[in-house]
Amino acid sequence: MAGERTIRIDALTRVEGEGALYVRTRNGTIEDLRLQIYEPPRMFEAFLRGRSLEEVPDITARICGICPVAYQMSSVHALEQALGIQVTPEIRQLRRLLYCGEWIASHTLHIYLLNAPDFFDCDSALQMAERFPDRVRVGLRMKKHGNQLLEALGGRAIHPVNVAVGGFYRVPRADQLRRLIPDFQWCLDAAQDTVRWVASFAFPDFDRPCELVSLVHPDEYPMNEGSIGTSSGERIAVDKYEDCFEERQVPYSTAYHSLRRPAGTTYLVGPLARVNLNCDRLSPVARQLAEELPVSWPSRNPFHSIIARALEVVHAFDEALQIMRNYREPSQSRIAYSYRDAAGCAATEAPRGLLYHRYAVDAGGKVTEAKIIPPTSQNQAQIEADLRAWLPNVQHLTDPALSRACENLVRCYDPCISCATHFLTVQIDRI
Amino acid sequence: MAEKPRLAVLKFASCDGCQLALLDLEERLLELGESVEIAFFLEASSRIEPGPYDVALVEGSITTPHDKERIHEVRRQSRFLITIGACATAGGIQALRNWADHEEFLRAVYAQPQYIAALEKSTPISDHVRVDFELRGCPINPSQLYEILRSLLHGRRPRTPAHSVCLDCKRRGTVCVTVARGIPCLGPVTQAGCGAICPTYDRGCYGCYGPAAQPNLVSLTSHLISTGVSQQEVVRTLRGFNGYSPEFRAESDRLAPP
Ligand code: SF4
Ligand code: SF4
C-alpha cells in the first residue's frame, strides 16, 4: 500500500478514562503517532494545598475509582515519612491485605472484562459471556470476593473510608476477615485456573528491548515499600525518584510523559515489570505456576501482561489467605503524631505500576505542596514506543483490523487515563 | 432484540468510580445485560452505537468548553438522563477550583505552556441541561443504581430515600461518634444511601452523598463551632466532594464569603 495512510481511533474503548490514538504513515514509514489523552484536567495537586493532611487519603482516592487504595497508600506513606511516623508491623500487614483486595478487584476487572475479549475478537465481556458464560462468571466471582475484602477492611470497595495517616480508623474484627476465608480458598484455585487459561491464549510474537521498573524488596513481593529496581540492575532509593526520572509535557496530551533521566529513554511499569523483577518473591503457589507455564521469565512481550496480572491475582489471594488466617486484632489501630514543617515522599505499587507521591506540610498540619506521578503517565511514552515498533508487523492489515490491533496493544497496559490526567497544564477560559 | 431499552454510559470530568459501580454489580450485571442493550459504554465495550438512547447514565462534571457542548448532544439523544455521583450532580471534588484564584492557582502549579482548554468552574450537569434523576454519592451505591435501573425497566419512576445518614446510624444502632467521642460529623445534614459507613469505622461522615432534604446546616455548623472546631475547618469540611451543591455552598459561603 503506497502513499499516506491514517489510522485514527477517536475513542479508545475498554480502558479507564478517555483517550484517542492517531497514526499517520507514508509509504509504510511512521510519520506521526500519538496516544492522545483528552480527559479533562481535575487539578488535584492544586486544590490539595491548604487542605488538612488527614484529608489527603480521602481526596487523592478520587483521582481514580479503579485504584483508590493505591492513592491512599502512597499518600499515607509519604505523609508518615514527613511526620516521622513508623507504623506497627500489624498495621503494615493490614495495609498489604487491603492492597491485595485492590489488586484482585482491579486485575480481575482487567483480565475478564477488558482484556480477555480481545483474544476472542469480542467487543465486550458480555459478548464473551455468550460463548464462555462460566469463565466470565468465575472472573466476576473473584472480583466480587476481592471487593468483599475491600469492604471488610475499608467499608466499601470504591473509595474506602478506613485509611488514615498513621494506620486505620478502626481495625477489622477477626470474624469479619475469617468469614472470607472459604471463598478465598475457592478463589485461589480459580485464580490458578485463570493463569492457565490466559497463558493458553494466542500471543503475538513481540519481544523487544525495554527497561522494566518496579519496586523491589528483599523479602516480599513489592506493594507498599522497597527501593526502585530496574531491569538493568539499578537500585534507586525512592527519595531519589525525581533525580532519576523526569516528566515532559507533550502538546497533544493532557498527561505528562515520564522518561529516564538523563538518557531520556522510555520505561515500563506495572505487572509485567513486577513479575519480571520479583518472580522469586511471588508466593510459592504463584511462583511454581509461573515456572510451569509455556512462557519463560523474564518476558518483555507486553501482550504477556495478562499472564503477569493473573499470576499476581494468585499471589494476592494466597497472601491474603495467609494474613487472614494469622490475623489477631491489634490493640492499636493508629499511631499518634504531631504536626511539623516537613516533606516526605513514597512510592507504592498500584495495580498498574509505580505510584509516586510527595508532599510538603506545615506546622499546622496543612498541605503546602503535592506532587503525584501515576503509573499510566510513566507508561505513556513506552506505549507509543511499542506501537512504533509493532506497526511494521501489522501494516498489512486492513484499516479496521489495524486499528483493532493497535488498540489491543494499548489495552495490554491497562492504561488508566483518569489517573494520568489529574495534573496537566490548563488554559482557563472565563465563562 | 429490537425492543430492549438502550442504555448509554457517558463520562465527563470524573474518576470512573461511579461507572465502575455498574461493573461492580457482577452477576447482576450479566442479568441486566439480558434485559437492556448496552449501546454506548466505552469502558466496557468496543461496540459503539449511535443514539438515541432510552436511558443515559452520566458521570462527571462539566469542566471544558468541549464538554459544555457535548452535554447538550447527550441530552438530545437521551430520553431519560440520570446523573450518577457527586461529580455529575454537584461538580465533584474538582469544583474546589470554583473558590480558587485562578491566576494564582495556575502560576503556582503549572509552569509549562498551556495546551488545553479548561473552564474556570467545574459545574454539575443540571447547570447545563435538564436532568431526569440524580443519584448521589462519591461513589454511588451499586445497589441503588441497580434498583433505579430496575424501576425504569418496569416503567416505574425511580426513587431514593432523602433522609439523613444520622437516621441510618440510629437504625443500624451505631453509637453516635459525636455524642460518644466528640468527633465532628456531617451525618445530620448528609443524605443517606451509603449505609452510614463512616461512623461504623469510628470516624465522622464527610458528606460524600451530599445534602439531605432540608438540612439544618446553620444549626450543625454553629454546634461545631461552639465545641471548638475552628470556622476555617468547618468551611473546609463543607467544601468537599459535594461542596458546590447549593446547600453546602450557601453555608460555607455564609461563613466565609468568597
Ligand atoms: S462522584 Fe466520586 S466516585 Fe463518582 S466519578 Fe466523581 S469522584 Fe469518582
Ligand atoms: S458516612 Fe458520609 S462520608 Fe461516609 S460514606 Fe456515608 S455519606 Fe460518605
CATH architecture of the largest domain in chain A: Orthogonal Bundle
Distance between the termini of chain A: 48 Å
> Ranges of chain B with pLDDT <50 over ≥5 residues?
none
* Overall CATH class of the largest domain in chain B: Alpha Beta
> Could you say what the CATH topology of the largest domain in chain A is called?
Cytochrome-c3 Hydrogenase, chain B
Structural class of chain B: alpha/beta
Structure characterization notes:
The complex is a heterodimer of chains A (431) and B (258). Chain A is α+β, with helices and mostly antiparallel strands. Chain A is 43% helix and 19% strand. In chain A, a hairpin with a 2-residue loop joins β4 and β5. Chain A is globular and about 70 Å long. In chain B, α3 links the parallel β3 and β4. Chain B is globular. A five-stranded parallel beta sheet of chain B has the order 2-1-3-4-6. With 258 residues, chain B is an alpha/beta fold. In chain B, α11 runs antiparallel to α12. The mean pLDDT of chain B is 92. Classes of the chains: A alpha+beta (431), B alpha/beta (258). At the A-B interface, α1, α4, α5, α6 and β15 of A face α1, α2, α5, β5 and α9 of B. β15 of chain A pairs parallel with β5 of chain B, so a sheet runs across the interface.
Fold blueprint:
The complex is a heterodimer of chains A (431) and B (258).
Chain A: E1 4-9, E2 19-26, E3 29-37, H1 44-48, H2 56-61, H3 68-83, H4 89-115, H5 125-131, H6 133-154, E4 163-164, E5 167-168, H7 174-178, H8 181-199, E6 211-216, E7 227-230, E8 235-236, H9 241-244, E9 245-249, E10 256-260, E11 267-268, H10 271-278, H11 284-292, H12 305-325, E12 342-350, E13 353-361, E14 367-373, H13 375-394, H14 399-412, H15 417-420, E15 426-429
Parallel strand pairs in A: 6-11
Antiparallel strand pairs in A: 1-2, 2-3, 4-5, 6-7, 7-8, 9-10, 12-13, 13-14
Chain B: E1 6-11, H1 17-23, H2 27-35, E2 37-41, E3 53-59, H3 65-77, E4 78-84, H4 86-90, H5 102-109, E5 116-119, E6 133-135, H6 142-153, H7 165-172, H8 177-181, H9 197-200, H10 217-226, H11 231-238, H12 246-255
Parallel strand pairs in B: 1-2, 1-3, 3-4, 4-6
Helix pairs in contact in B: 11-12
One iron/sulfur cluster (SF4) sits between chains B (14-15, 17-18, 59, 85-87, 92, 138-139) and A (62, 65, 159).
